Amino acid sequence: MMRHSVFAKSIQDRWRGMFIASVALSVSFLFGMAVYKDIDISFYNDFPEAMQAMMGISEGAGVGSLAYGAIYGVYGALVLAVMALMAGAGSIAGEERNGTLGLLLGNPKSRSHLLISKTTALLLLLVLAIVVMGIAGRIVPVLLGVEVGGMETESLMLHLLINSIFYGMLATAIGAWTGNSGLASGVSAGVMIVGLLGSGLLPLVSGAEDFAKIFPWYYFDGSQPAVNGVDWGHIAVLAGASGLFFVVALFGVNRRDMKAQAVGLTLVDRLRANPLTQKVVERVPGTAKVSHIWVKTASEYQMLLIAAGYYMFLVGGVAMGPIYTAIDDTLLTLADQLPDTLMALAGGGDISTPEGYYSVETFGMMGPIIFLMITVTIGSRALAGEESKRTMGLLLANPISRRRVVIEKMAAMVVLTSVMGLLTFAGTLIGSLIGGLGMATENIAAVSLQVTLIGLTFGALALAISAATGQVKLAVFGSVGPALIFYLMNAFLPLSDSLAGYAKLSVFHYYSGGDPLVNGLNLGHAALLAGLTVVLVVAAVGLFDRRDLRQS
Amino acid sequence: MPNKAAILTKDLTKHYGEVRALTDLNLTVQKDEVFGFLGPNGAGKTTAIRTLLDEIRPTAGQASIVGLDTHDKSVEIRRHIGYLPGDLALYPGLTGKDLLSYFANLRGGVDWSYVDLLAERLNADLSKKVGNLSSGNRQKIGLIQAFMSRPEVLIMDEPSTGLDPLVQREFQTILRELVAEGNTVFLSSHTLSEVQRVADRVGIIRNGKLITVETVSSLRSKAMRKVEFEFGSDADSSVFEGVAGVSNVAIEGRRIVLSFDGTMDVLLKAAMDHHDTVVDITTHEADLEDIFLTYYIDQSDEAGPAS
To answer: Does the CB of A397 have a partner CB in chain B at under 8 Å?
Structure first.
């Protein structure tokens, strides 16, 4: 009976992901607080206010505020916002992409009803995730015996909730207007990332503090809700905008023609449609893109490559140089006060140096996230995607072995990720030149290679799970989950003297542990990541070869 | 004999846990014949075909195509076959031409002028993105894809899905031509009439078990039909008395409706002999269930009631 409503089905489709995310964040919270409890954290109090704000730490930080700020305030907020925007982007546009919207609207339910049901389901799931995290936020300090008096857990949770709703509604609105779920999630994620960086970085530049207010992220943590309680004004801004987006979505979905099954237009398609360019294009890329499995696979992710490549080249690479020069002084005064333990958290290196700065901003969290986004997307869909879209049977009706399919799909991943690596290298080099930072070219090459390799490692993991199970979702969760845990292990374990050694168990240790931008390439680390990738691909071949293909 | 067969299965069995999708399938498809694989939805047709393609692996038994084991030699086999999956899904972002080029590149040795000819005969639009085509037009791309390498063995799962009658006829003509060139066709269907039109022999499958293999002509003569006569005057109840194969006679004024199992000849003669004018005759093909019923009755006659 429950299945009969759009609302119930939306809950059913999405609750697992949301539940896993909230539990993972709760466990990370436990993990983070345990580490903070174990170390001397007094040094944090010496940071300038802006620096603390960027790291999600409140002034006068105790163990509690560090854990709440770093785990919930940064990772939690990011993860929830991404979950929300994915669900929002999929709500109308996703059904169009899958060709199921027509079926759904064949029932006596209006488009508005559909949108409202799906949105209500999303809101409920977000509330549930927040409740799980909130309960963990209350229980964990008691379990660990940490004093968190004065922490406004519920206020932070409310800010987290409204913040994630904001991105969910933004994506819903774009998806409802355009019917393009990729565009909806891409633009919303872009707004989120630019906002996160902008609201974090601008306060560090004197005179630019107020510009931070143009970014939505400012209204999430600008008021430091974990310490200062709910800022109802900020909540009103985000809630008001969310409401507005929802109204826009309602308009949008009722206004336009629904797509039967969305077929994206690529650049090549547009050139083909143009009589001026038609002949040339027909001859070259039209046939080239279907010449091999790997070329076709690579061509399917061109938009992702353009978006991610643009970000790594321009924002992560080129722009960081001049930005560094602009905020250089502020950081320098800070540098002496930073203890070694913090550097481990930040991704290694001295943040007052250009190398350290790039290591944190470009290669600390964002680089791996973007590279993994590409590799995990390809890895998880390479095999399981063709199976769930029922094209694998047709593909394998050709005289090609399953092994070749796996290897060509992996080749596509390697090619695209290598292009990303080159763009990252070129962007960072140019950023270094423009900013006059004088970073060693071979070290820039080293860190670019490392970020490529860490991406490939987890992409290969996704590929192996995809090969073993044929399930896209499982492959995504099964590779992103461990990646998150390894990342946090590598970030937090070194803070504790007694636990530091265990960081070597984290795959991420072999990405950034050797500080490639400072020390150059650590061949052992690179070889380990490459070796792991090869092992996983070999496993993928074996696993894919021995099982039944799924029918749908 | 085994080497001569285009497709040979021996005790082919596929179970998914408790679900017995296919049980002990023994089938021999000869070279240059069209073999129809007939059964209702969920009978195990697709399971059998997917096993032949090595998409799924049998729980027990084995199969060979042109004498090669379907698992050990699956890649080699696929050089010899063309395949059209049931419930066809294609890459929506590719045009028909791109899609065919893709598979032609993977396969090698495809004669593109033949592709153009097929597209023309089936009236397929290769310039549009597959995702923007109607399901019938998409099916045409799938058919061309299966035909284009002029395969020795064609395996098609419900090939006529979505095709209009005109295209269906052209499709059947192409099938016939391929068989005349010495190739083999194995196609599944859930409609008797389709199989009867194209196939030489028919295997009937239900609940994962092969019930019988018959030539189409013997199936046709065996097949029960519903026949409706309309006469110029009130029907005489004695008209079909004693005619072999007639049962369930019902009389309504000038009309007689009956079930018939045999050659039409006998029935027509009886009608002509006893009545002045036969105004109209309508025959309905017995549906699949009727045929199954016939075979079940046959089986239980021989071996007692089915379990």
So the answer is: yes
| Shortest CA gap B293–chain A (Å) | 30
* 3 state SS of B30: coil
Q: Nearest CA of chain A to the CA of B89: how many Å?
A: 6
Q: How far is A357 from chain B (nearest CA, A)?
A: 42
Cβ distance B203 to B28 under 8 Å?
A: no
> Alpha-carbon distance A174 to A177, whole Å?
5
Distance, in angstroms, between B107 CA and closest chain A CA?
6
Give CA A81 to chain center in angstroms: 10
Q: Where are the alpha helices (DSSP H) in A145-231?
A: 153-178, 181-201, 218-221, 225-228
Disruptive mutation site among A263, A266, A268, A388 for chain B (greatest number of B CBs within 10 Å)? A263
pLDDT tens digits, chain A, 552 residues: what are they? 344 577 888 888 888 888 888 888 888 788 777 777 766 665 565 555 555 555 555 555 566 677 787 778 887 898 899 889 989 998 888 888 777 777 777 777 788 888 999 999 999 999 999 999 999 988 888 888 887 777 788 899 999 999 999 999 999 999 998 888 888 988 998 899 888 878 877 776 777 778 888 899 999 988 888 888 899 999 999 999 999 999 999 999 888 877 665 455 555 666 666 666 666 666 554 566 788 898 888 888 887 888 888 888 887 888 788 777 776 565 555 555 555 555 555 555 566 788 888 887 788 878 998 899 899 999 999 899 999 888 999 999 999 999 999 999 999 999 999 999 999 999 999 989 988 888 999 999 999 999 999 999 999 999 999 999 999 989 998 998 899 889 888 887 877 777 778 888 899 999 988 889 888 899 999 999 999 999 999 999 999 998 999 876
Judged by CB atoms closer than 8 Å, whether chains meet at B53 and A393 is answered as yes
Which residues, in sequence order, are bridge partners of residue A188? none
Interface test with A, best of B52, B55, B65, B155 (most A CBs within 10 A): B55
In angstroms, rounded to a whole number, what is the distance separating the alpha carbons of residues A393 and B47?
12
* A548 in reach of chain B (CB within 8 A): yes
Q: State how far Cα B140 lies from the chain centre.
A: 18
Is A397–B85 a contact, with Cβ atoms under 8 angstroms apart? yes
CB-defined contacts A:B, below 8 A: 82
CA A430 from centre of chain: 25
Q: Which of B53, B93, B105 sits opposite A263 (nearest CB)?
A: B93
- Chain A CB contacts of B55 below 8 Å: 392-393, 396, 548-549
Alpha-carbon gap, residue B291 to A127, rounded angstroms: 58
Q: Is B256 on the interface with A (CB under 8 A)?
A: no
Residue A293 sits at the chain B interface (C-beta within 8 Å): yes
Q: Which residues on neighbouring strands pair with residue B257, listed in sequence order?
A: B228, B250
Residue B233 φ then ψ, to 5°: -135, 180
Q: Are A24 and A78 in contact (CB under 8 A)?
A: no
Chain A residues touching B58 at Cβ < 8 A: none
Q: Which residue of B has its CA nearest to A546?
A: B57
Q: Which residues contact A153 (CB under 8 A, 6 or more apart)?
A: A68, A134, A137, A138, A226
Cα B25 from Cα A184, distance rounded (Å): 50
Tell me, what amino acid is at A177? W
Q: Chain B residues with CB inside 8 Å of A470's CB?
A: none
A302 touches chain B (CB under 8 A): no
CB burial of B57-92 (b: ≥16 within 10 Å; e: otherwise) equals ebeebbbbbbebebeebbbebbbbbbbbbbebbbbb
How many angstroms separate the CA atoms of A305 and B55, rounded? Answer: 32
Chain A hits for B57, Cβ within 8 Å: 548
Q: Is the CB of A398 less than 8 angstroms away from the CB of B94?
A: no
Tokens of A9: 């089905």
SS3 A100: coil
